[in-house]
Design a protein that fits this description.
By secondary structure, the protein is α/β, with parallel strands linked by helices. The chain has helices at about 20-35, 50-55, 70-80, 95-105, 115-215, 225-255, 270-280, 305-320, 355-360, 380-390, and strands at about 1-5, 15, 35-40, 60-65, 65, 70, 85-90, 110, 265-270, 290-295, 300-305, 330-335, 340-350, 395-400, 405-415, 415. The strands form four sheets. A six-stranded mixed sheet has the order 1-3-2-4-7-8, with helices on both faces. The structure holds adenosine-5'-diphosphate.
Amino acid sequence: MADMQAESSLKEKVLIMDDDPLFLKIIDKQLKALGFETVTVSDDFEKIEFYIEQNRPNIIIIDFFLGNIEGVTLMEKINKGYDIPVIFVTSSHENEVLEKILSVSPEGFIDKNRLNIAELKAMLHLTLYKSQRDRELKELNEKLDIKVKERTRELDQAVKALVHEMSEKEIAHKKLEKSLRAEKEFSRQKTDIISNLSHEFKTPLSSIMSSAQLIMRMMDKAKLSDEKYNKHINRILEGTEIMNDLIVRILSVERRENIALETQMLEMDLTTLIEEYKLKLEVFKQDQQEIIYQEDIKLGTVNIDPNLVELVLVNLISNALKYSKDEGSIEVSIQGIDNPPRLLVKVKDQGIGIGKEDLTKIFKRFYRGQNVGSIEGTGIGLSIVEQTLDILGGNIEVKSELNEGTQVDIEIPLEVNN
Ligand code: ADP
């Protein structure tokens, strides 16, 4: 039977387990006299966990022989689930018993036959002091453990941040290298383009020069018919215009951008505008070449940026002529249609064509097809066309077969003034 007499106080509590009622009584009395609170248990020892849970003792005193159960078995149970110091009591002096007791390392050992109150007091206080220290040490250890874990985590994060920073630096370094390479490549391309463009100056310049010389020689207007006079003056003007366009292109290369593509919408009659374009496009023809137009203009006055549209047409039509035979003709179909209002232009030639591999790259700045041979060019025309169409909200499609010809279709949305 368990005789649990526990006063509820803040005193240190001792749980005593012994099947000898006399000894229990004596030790209980002595402990109380020493100022401890006590709980005595004289049977049902296997319910040790229950007694602990109920009483939460600070120290446990166990007899080595508890009828059919040994005190060490109980101690093993205590050690498994609790952190409570245990003191053994026994009256046996047999080596076997003492060895068994020592094997479970109790906090203390009391000889029943020589129970001395002063010794008991010292042992209990020492045990309690030690267990308190152990607890503090354990707490300290746990705190330290948490701190070490925290520090390890912080260190881990710092290492990760460092690795991240290093890889960022590496990326930045690679970017720098890439832009340096691009810079070098650009500067090489710039030299190529400028020398190509300079070459292109020759044609308009020589026609300006020859026309000017002719006019000079024939200053006496009588020797030059009005018609011829006008023709040469026009050649000079057209040549100057081409050269002006070339200079703009050179400057745009220099500035790393295409021609200042600012929109300037004007209200214009579409048919008149197209007639103006046709006149301007004449200069790109070789003498034997022909531009066959097919028109279907259903729109009247439109809001249009005439310069940007001209830029697109000039580039496409001059390409079609340039990449065709000297005597080849090209077809240009122009439609101004409604619903929604838009300009559709189809430029078709029977020239050298564009290889499949090149077809995906021709809009890249400075890219020139592999089959251009000695045909002069800079590789920026189509990139300008693409940019311009982007601004105008239009689109472009290029179909081509090598040695058969090329067809370029563009669509530009228009605004109609009602
Ligand atoms: P460029 O004509 O000055 O080389 P573009 O940007 O206008 O530059 O054209 C890029 C490339 O596309 C040309 O070098 C050429 O290979 C190809 N190309 C464009 N238009 C035609 C065309 N009508 N016929 C054949 N090839 C063309």
